[in-house]
Structures are given as C-alpha cells and as structure tokens.
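hey can u check if this looks right to u? its 188 residues, i copy pasted from the old doc so theres a chance i mangled smth
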Amino acid sequence: DAGETWERRTPAGDQASGPFQVAYDLTYFRGRVLAACFAGGLVSSSDDGQSWTNIYADNTARSDFENEFYNDLNNRYFAAIVDSTRPESLAVWAGTAYGLNKFVFLNDTLKPKGYVFNDIHIDGVRLYAATDDGLSRTPDRGGSWRTFNMASDGFPSNRVISTAAKGDTIWAGFESDDGASGLGLAYS
C-alpha cells in the first residue's frame, strides 16, 4: 500500500537479522523479491516474504549455510541486480565477498521440467524426457520444450518413469509420488 502500513518479514534461520546477516540489497524479478544477505546467503520469496528459498552458487555454499559454518565467502552477498536484456532469459548478478555470481533463469519453454530424469527417448525427430515433474518434449534439439503433466493433460501423476514414441504415438508410464506403486500408462 505504498508505505501506509508495514509488516516485518524475516527469512527462515534469520538470514537477514542474525550476526553479520544483514540484507544489504533487494531486487525484484518475475514476481519474486530477492535479498542479498551477508552471511545469510541469497534468498528469494514469491509470496510477499511469507516463505523464502535459498539460491546457492554451488554445493559448497549450500553446505556452508546448512551446516551453519558461514565461512564461504561466496555465500556472503552484498549486492544483487536483475539483467533482463535478453528476452528468452533473465540473469541475476550477485556480488559476494569472493566475487561475482551470475544466475540465469530461463523461460519455461526453454527447459525441460523436473530434476530427476527417469528415461529419455528419441523418435528420430523429437526428444522426450520422462521426469519427476512430467513428460517434456523438444522438437528442435533443446531449443524449446513443451511439458505434459497432471494439471494440464490429465496424467495420473507427474512422476513419469518411462516413455516411448514413434511418429505421433507416445506412451508414458507413471508411479505414485512416494514411488511405492505404479499408476499405469498413458497413450497419445
């Protein structure tokens, strides 16, 4: 409300309010606020500060923060700025006590969904990736992606375990979220 009222928001673990954990810089990108916290890491929120997610430069930075060592200079942020000059991606530049980090966020159409890849299939023209977040397909060697999932395509689960395709015929196999049981097949 343009400063009429204020509410306090604190990232989990007091990343912006503990010893040496000062929020030196704030910026916005794609509906998220990003805070560069010295000794608190780089954190973002998409729900007006109700919850926060760390953005780590690497596994060393993750381990340093999660184990509360706070020794990694690459995890001591003091500046962040958004570079949106490329329409297909967005880059966040973040300054640390160790140097400059660049985080690139691609539009959803430029990347497959999911972090766990269970199966990959090439039908001669298109590549399919069965992941923990749906079935992604690219017709142009990764130049663009479309993802099929439970919400938009009626799959029994987003956990796609296997896939096969020939021409316009596509098959996908599914399992439950806990991995305890199979949920059948889908055919297109």
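The chain has two helices and 14 strands.
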